[in-house]
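User: Here's a chain of 82 residues. Predict its fold as tokens.
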Amino acid sequence: MPIVVEYPSSLPDALQQSREEFEQEARMAMAVKLFELKRISSGMAAQMAGVDRVTFLLNLHRYGVPMIDLDEEELHADVANA
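Assistant: Prediction complete.
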């Protein structure tokens, strides 16, 4: 089911984007934030953003979000289980 978000019609122009570019960026930003908050998986976020998972993960740096966000304990556990 699509989500409808209202925004001023002048907003894409103010950001020097087409309506389609703005809406794609908005979908990506929402997906990135939900992924960052650990509310959804990278696969679900990619689907939400309308891109494949690799593309989603490779674009996280544009939003200042790390691909892998493990604390030291989690990192040691992953290394021990590798």
